[in-house]
Amino acid sequence: xxxxxxxxxxxxxxxxxxxxxxxxxxxxxxxxxxxxxxxxxxxxxxxxxxxxxxxxxxxxxxxxxxxxxxxxxxxxxxxxxxxxxxxxxxxxxxxxxxxxxxxxxxxxxxxxxxxxxxxxxxxxxxxxxxxxxxxxxxxxxxxxxxxxxxxxxxxxxxxxxxxxxxxxxxxxxxxxxxxxxxxxxxxxxxxxxxxxxxxxxxxxxxxxxxxxxxxxxxxxxxxxxxxxxxxxxxxxxxxxxxxxxxxxxxxxxxxxxxxxxxxxxxxxxxxxxxxxxxxxxxxxxxxxxxxxxxxxxxxxxxxxxxxxxxxxxxxxxxxxxxxxxxxxxxxxxxxxxxxxxxxxxxxxxxxxxxxxxxxxxxxxxxxxxxxxxxxxxxxxxxxxxxxxxxxxxxxxxxxxxxxxxxxxxxxxxxxxxxxxxxxxxxxxxxxxxxxxxxxxxxxxxxxxxxxxxxxxxxxxx
Length: 461
Prior knowledge:
3 domains, Endonuclease, Chain A
């Protein structure tokens, strides 16, 4: 593409500042990275920076301490083998002594583990890294499944039945002993909208005023935690000018990284140049693309999807079904075996990857894990973790009764395997992208397990 949207120099600048912040954390200095600008672009830079460090990243929308810890812990369990981390923790405790842990600890019986814990002088209290280590290895020995709620409950005070989040976070990081933990980024609940009306900005500012003291308290207690906060320029300006002076505010203002924003006019300019024609009917799409901090890849996917649509759109009165199929074959930029709906799938997938709270959730054209007829079932966009299947229906889904019946059989099979099925018309992906994104977001939120443990002590400023 001649006119680029990605700003590589900003990515390099971001990495340099993020590296400086991480060095401060390693040195034990509490550091909150505040990313100001396009929240979508900030999240993309954050994930890319983490990936270059061979670590995972997680973006959480809204919430406070307990929700943050549960989201971070969920990613930790996905990205790392915490049982192996616990095993290494025991071996570190035995190092330099006459004792040793011969063989793999997973081979030991519960009785053998208990004896080993005693020899290593591992504390059995829940609110210590020792206690967390003992609990994990005991659970593995008994072959019980592990979920976020289980781990949180293991760190919960038995007397108060509540969780000290900073203490729990410190225990988890102690268990890792400097190992890479997920880089955590927090955005406001409505960050995907980024509306600039006064009411929205006031609401986001109020959330910042509540969230920042909690974050600063956490990083003061656990300075090794890699955490950032992303917000738009208008909300940040209101917060810095109106929030009362405090220690938390001073810490937040200390490490700000400014992230570029993308204008609607810029998206319109690049898409118009790519299509070689004006597309005023796509103005709502341009707004959404700007909010998503559209990269070159996303804009290219949009151009491909829109460029084919006039020839393949379902319901056009001037095109007969046979002509649609023929013109699809003649379209030069469609690869062999790659029908028009595949371009819509790719565009939607790229759009999800650009959306802070949905990025990394879905895989494109992924196996569902069971057979559909004689072939492995494949889903257009699959979130295996939450069992959400997104299917895009193109023209060929409506060519006859058998196509319809086939889709219904596939839906039933997916539902029998516990999947929530979301179906969208291929022709709706571009013009109704905001509506589709919101319905996918709602499905993700409804299927994300909620932590049932209540939070402990209140955090001050």
